[in-house]
Amino acid sequence: MSDVVSYQREDEIGLIVVDNPPVNALGHAVRQGLLDALDQGLADDGARALVVMGAGRTFPAGADIREFGQTPKEPALPDVINRLEDSGKLLIAAVHGTALGGGMEITLGCDYRLALDSARMGLPEVNLGLLPGAGGTQRLPRLIGAQAALDAIVGGKPMKAGQLEKMGVVDKVVSGDLKAEAIAYARQLADDNAPRRKVSELTVDKESNTVFSDYEQSIARKKRGFLAPFHCIKAVQAATELDFAAGQKRERELFTELLNSPQSAAQRHVFFAEREVGKVPGIAKDTPRREIAQVGIIGAGTMGGGIAMNFLSAGIPVKMLEMKQEALDKGVALIRKNYEATAKKGRMTSEQVERCMSLLTTTLSYDDLSDVDLVIEAVFENMKVKKEVFGELDRVTKPGAILATNTSTLDVNEIAQSTRRPEDVIGMHFFSPANVMKLLENVRGEATSDEVIATVMDLSKRIGKVGVLVGVCYGFVGNRILHKRQAQAISLVNEGAAPAQVDKVLYDFGLPMGPFAMADLAGLDVGWRIREGLRESDPANAPERNWLDALAEQERWGQKTGGGVFDYAEGDRTPRPSEVTAAEIEKYRAEQGIDTREVSDTEILERCLYVMVNEGAKILEEGVAMRPLDIDIVWIYGYGFPVYQGGPMFWADSIGLDKVHAKIQQFHDETGHDDWKPAPLLERLAKEGKRFADL
Ligand code: T1G
């Protein structure tokens, strides 16, 4: 008998129990164990019906993702489920926790499905660049029709037990003791001589002849560049055109194509990376955490308000401080406006809006922050102002309170040194809009204690963020790499490319927008003011004036002024090439005596991405990022790097570091520019034929 699947009989009912912590993943041993337990149950004359269930926290949550990419071992899951469905006894699935992917497919191979009211089921394979490969694309449409199956499979979102009962997937929803409920239900079915119900023998309702082409069109924009969603549609279509066996064969072909695709390898990398970033090497699992029951926010501007919403939405009371009442009123009004907009879209109830707003209080006095557990400062990006704020916080907050700064560029160590408790100071760099963007760069200072780091990393999850721990340097991980890419984009235009050409190359690569459309969204004035500041404070090292400065000086600040690098029609965010910009670029090239040349799309892609990889390697050498996967997650959740490319460091591995290094060396030989000086780490890995993933 396998040690991950057991069989026992209780009250004339055979129980097949999967026990493979943490999530009962359907690895090889579990698949074999299921067949062995099934055979035992079928041979057990005392068992009138069989129940399949999971031990621990959940029904099987899918295939073992770690096995993908390895040589597959028999029995394969589709065969296991076909055996379950063809077995000679009534089979009931009893679901708790999250029956996902292959787990849900097992339930579809059973005659009846019972679920706890807290359970969820779904087919999220598309999020791994895959499709349900164990009969899910053939059985689910037979149960709920093609349209609803497409929503479930292409959407990949888990569904609640109650919703599934309404859809006819779950037959009974229970609460309390699942095993007892399952045995009682199985006995009832046996007593009632309930019929076997093979889902594979059902036919699929196809709502219309265009349901599949319509669906493809409906996701074309949102799923641009992805492979899996469109393979999912093809598989469900096969269910409506072929008999079950042929459909399952087609499903397997499409599944195998995806499994062997670079996209799925990238998305599986991201699945594990997203979980790994939360673990901080060197900080023990049992490091004490501080309780965060109340939070103070300094600054009620766009960032302060967005940050506050994360805590309010997580049920954590917030005290918001400002210097003037009208700034507070404006900040509170913006928070309410954002919540009401979400409610209008049906993603919140008005009760939930009121509950969040009821957790928000405001103050004009620092003394009112004496009882909070954490304060996050989100004031003007100026060191003098930051130090004044932290001086006040140091004076009023209780011992053990965590003092965090939302700075995106300033030195966290210098801010910490302006207090008597630098060990309690940390950076919490939210991304705008802070209530929407999932990424949170948590910045550890030289003195930041393990307790503060562990507390803030856990808190990141609690407020629905992906927290990545980074070190102190200019721009931390995300912006530092972004600055290098933007610099390359500008150089490429100086040398002959058009801004629209550069943007199209990166857009086609899968980024939500190119460098110049992004600059127009953020506002050309932001970068210009920082450069002007440097030109005043440090003229010797200040950046040279370029055509972007010329645009900013003409108040072409981007979308907000109807024109920046690109032109924007009233109420339309579509970037259109601008004659003003073209003229400024021409003027700049002439002033610099630049002989322009044809710039290829390949060169644009290589220069914009390889400079990111090289900077990423330097960041790893300096310890500003702990692992390459931290950089990948920062860029995926903070800058829209396509998940199906896996992040800049994973992508570089997929290209081959020897090839990346050789090109970087060539760019360095050609330009002599420091940004192209190959990072020693990259050089070493390339020479040793290794990958960043081997670090
Ligand atoms: N395989 C291997 N490891 C898994 C796993 C899986 N399916 N799911 C979770 N883990 C690990 C995870 O890495 C972590 O490890 C620990 O379990 C706890 O997870 C044929 C092709 C179930 C909702 O996509 O969505 O079936 O970090 O931190 O927040 O059609 O995990 O502790 O070392 O995420 O409570 C389809 C994936 C597979 C579900 C729990 N299934 N898992 O969330 O804990 S493809 C999925 C999840 C498939 C078939 C196809 C979540 C969860 P560690 P966690 P959680």
From TrEMBL:
For this chain, one GO molecular function annotation is: NAD+ binding
Task: Tell me which Gene Ontology terms the entry assigns under biological process.
Answer: fatty acid beta-oxidation
The similarity annotation says: Belongs to the enoyl-CoA hydratase/isomerase family. In the N-terminal section; belongs to the enoyl-CoA hydratase/isomerase family.
Q: Which UniProt keywords apply?
A: Fatty acid metabolism, Isomerase, Lipid degradation, Lipid metabolism, Lyase, Multifunctional enzyme, NAD, Oxidoreductase, Peroxisome
Question: Where does it localize?
Answer: Peroxisome
- Ranges for domain 3-hydroxyacyl-CoA dehydrogenase C-terminal come to 475-568, 604-690
Give the highest taxon in the source lineage: Bacteria
Note the Gene3D superfamilies from the entry: 1.10.1040.50, 2-enoyl-CoA Hydratase, Chain A, domain 1, NAD(P)-binding Rossmann-like Domain
Q: How does it assemble?
A: Monomer.
Q: Its pathway?
A: Lipid metabolism; fatty acid beta-oxidation
Q: Tell me, what's a Pfam family for it?
A: 3HCDH
Organism, as annotated: Salinisphaera orenii YIM 95161
PANTHER family given in the database record: 3-HYDROXYACYL-COA DEHYROGENASE (PTHR23309), PEROXISOMAL BIFUNCTIONAL ENZYME (PTHR23309:SF49)
UniProt protein name: 3-hydroxyacyl-CoA dehydrogenase
Catalysed reaction per UniProt?
Answer: a (3S)-3-hydroxyacyl-CoA + NAD(+) = a 3-oxoacyl-CoA + NADH + H(+)
Q: Which residues form the 3-hydroxyacyl-CoA dehydrogenase NAD binding domain?
A: 294-470
Record's signal peptide: none
